[in-house]
Design goal:
By secondary structure, this protein is of the alpha/beta class. It has helices at residues 2-20, 48-55, 70-83, 101-108, 114-121, 123-127, 131-143, 155-162, 171-178, 185-192, 207-236, 259-264, and strands spanning 37-39, 44-46, 60-65, 88-93, 147-150, 242-249, 271-277, 289-292. It has a single domain (32-292), classed as Rossmann fold.
Length: 299
């Protein structure tokens, strides 16, 4: 009797375990043309109007970027124009730091010309992406009287973390570094597919040390942007008419493991994630919405 009981429970565990195991991809998304939107929660293609309707419910919207994709940037610009008719928009942008906020405020308020903004922000040196590609986003944000903020680490801060230069860190920087969570196994597993080669090893540094350094900086990026986004959300979202759009590279948001996960550790505000994808087979849990786009070569 004990043997049969044991086998019965083993069978239950096997059955429920199998049922609980998630599928790796959604096979039949129905995506065929670029610029289509797919809702993973609804399991179907939806209209832009439907996407906007869902976004109305969330004070914080994470939007992933392919940095060199002009079609994607046009879509985001249109989204900003649409939401800006109803809401006060605040855009947190990956490639600026909090130290840039004064310049960003002047630019959004049109107290700086575009040429002055690009010079003051040192666009070519510090950012390097094709500005004209992002121009529609910034122009539409200005048109709806939106605001823009920097949320990333500076190059100097990243270098100190990369090289673990504790002697060069101030008290705030040390506290940030020592609080980094480098042991989220599922995030490590996800990132490992991107960080499998060491492109610029330091002198006398082996491959494993190099990969650990690269991962350390990746986590620091996500941690900084997550915390800064949470800090901004607390400061600027005062009512249902305020929305924070966090605009960062797509890889920083996939499966809710990057900036959005670290945001959630510092804020209880509901959020939604919209990612660009060039593949028709979409992995379960990668985001809430997918914007089907062509080139995904640059994250």
């Amino acid at each position: 009797m004990k043997v049969y009981t044991y086998l019965f429970f083993i069978s239950l565990l096997f059955i429920f375990g199998a049922c609980a195991k998630p599928q790796s991809i959604l096979h039949e998304t129905g995506l065929s043309d670029t610029k289509q939107i797919y809702s993973l929660k609804e399991g179907k293609i939806v209209s832009k109007a439907r996407l906007v309707d869902v976004l109305r419910a969330y004070p914080v919207i994470f939007v992933g970027d392919f940095h060199n994709n002009e079609n994607l940037h046009q879509f985001i610009a249109e989204l900003i124009a649409t939401l800006g008719k109803e809401y006060t928009l605040h855009l947190a942008n990956e490639w600026f730091t909090p130290m840039d906020n004064n310049t960003l405020e002047l630019f959004m308020d049109k107290e700086l010309t575009e040429a002055q903004f690009l010079e003051n922000i040192s666009w070519k040196k510090n950012i390097g992406y094709k500005y004209d590609s992002f121009k529609p986003i910034y122009q539409n944000l200005q048109k709806v009287d939106g605001k823009m903020y920097g949320i990333n680490l500076s190059r100097a801060e990243r270098k100190k973390i990369s090289l673990i230069q504790l002697d060069k860190m101030n008290v705030k920087e040390k506290l940030f570094y020592k609080a980094l969570d480098l042991n989220t196994s599922v995030h490590k597993q996800f990132i490992s597919s991107f960080l499998h080669d060491c492109h610029a090893p330091l002198k006398n540094e082996d491959k494993q040390e190099c990969l650990e350094r690269m991962y350390r900086v990746q986590v620091a990026w996500d941690e900084k942007m997550g915390k800064e986004s949470a800090r901004l959300a607390k400061k600027i979202i005062k009512g249902r008419k305020d929305k924070l759009i966090v605009f960062v590279g797509a890889m920083h948001l996939e499966f809710g493991l990057g900036v959005n996960m670290r945001f959630s550790r510092n804020s209880t505000l509901p959020h939604v994630t919209v990612l660009p994808k060039s593949k028709k087979d979409i992995q379960i849990g990668v985001a809430d919405f997918i914007y089907y786009i062509e080139d995904s070569s640059s994250l």
